[in-house]
Amino acid sequence: MHMLLRPKIFAVIGILFLSGCSQSLNAPVEYYQFEQTIQPMQRSSIDTVAQLRVSTVSLRGALNNRGIAMKLDNNQMNAANYHLWSEAPDQMLTASAHQTLFTALDNWMVVKGLPVITDKDQQSYYELEYELHHFNGDKQGNADISGLWRLYYTSFEKGRSLQAIHYFSEVSPLIDDDYEGLVASLELNWQKVNEHVATTLSSLIHK
């Protein structure tokens, strides 16, 4: 795909993001979600070496909006009115991150959120926090997921401590010049982010 947007994506930006009321009144609402395939998997605590708790993804400002976001220039973001995520982006991203990490870290117990602690063994665990600063398309025809992740470790003896902070930026050309292409590209970038996280976490156990 060329660096400059093709006529089709110009139409997408011009009509769907900046359209006048007369153009948008009759536009049908379309919903999108990540297409991540679910594979049958199971995990037992006796077969794992560590527990990882994935916190709900935090998105900056208006990015946690059902309208798919587009960056128009250096200072302006816009959200589509008729092209929406099928659920809140923070919940979708968290579920996707959990699934990718659960699959990649086959000797970790990966859970979402902070479940109730019932015994001393469960009081030692890692905790992963994501903070997304970009989750959008742009006028150059790219999908952009950028931000940072923080890793904490909690132990019964020492409590909670910060282990690492990593900034990341995954920017790639759109697979196709439409909203489906943008959603697919964002999902691919998010999977890459989580695969990199899994690689980093795997090295902790081998130190």
Describe this structure in words.
This is ABC-type transport auxiliary lipoprotein family protein. Pfam families: ABC_trans_aux. InterPro entries: ABC_trans_aux. Helices cover 28% and strands 36% of the residues. The protein contains 4 helices and 9 strands; from the N terminus they run H-H-E-E-E-E-E-H-E-E-E-E-H. It has helices at residues 7-17, 21-24, 89-104, 179-205; strands at residues 30-32, 50-54, 58-59, 67-73, 76-85, 108-112, 125-138, 142-155, 159-173. Strands 1, 2, 3, 4, 5, 6, 7, 8 and 9 form a 9-stranded mixed beta sheet that branches. Helix 3 packs across helix 4. It is elongated and about 60 Å long. Mean pLDDT is 85; it is low at 1-7 and 10-23.
What gap, in angstroms, lies between the N and C termini? 42 Å
Structural domains: how many: 1
Could you tell me the radius of gyration in angstroms?
Answer: 19 Å
Strand segment tally? 9
Classify the helix fraction into a percent range: 25-40%
Q: Briefly, what CATH class? A: Alpha Beta
Q: What is the strand content? A: 35-45%
CATH topology heading: Rossmann fold
Structural class: alpha/beta
The largest sheet, given as strand count, sense and whether it forms a barrel, is:
9 strands, mixed
> What form results from the Cα inertia axes?
elongated
Tell me the name of the CATH homologous superfamily. Answer: ABC-type transport auxiliary lipoprotein component
SSE ordering:
HHEEEEEHEEEEH
Q: Which segments are poorly predicted (pLDDT under 50) over 5 or more consecutive residues? A: 1-7, 10-23
Number of helices: 4
Keywords: Lipoprotein, Signal
Organism: Pseudoalteromonas haloplanktis
Signal peptide: 1-27
InterPro entries: ABC_trans_aux (IPR005586)
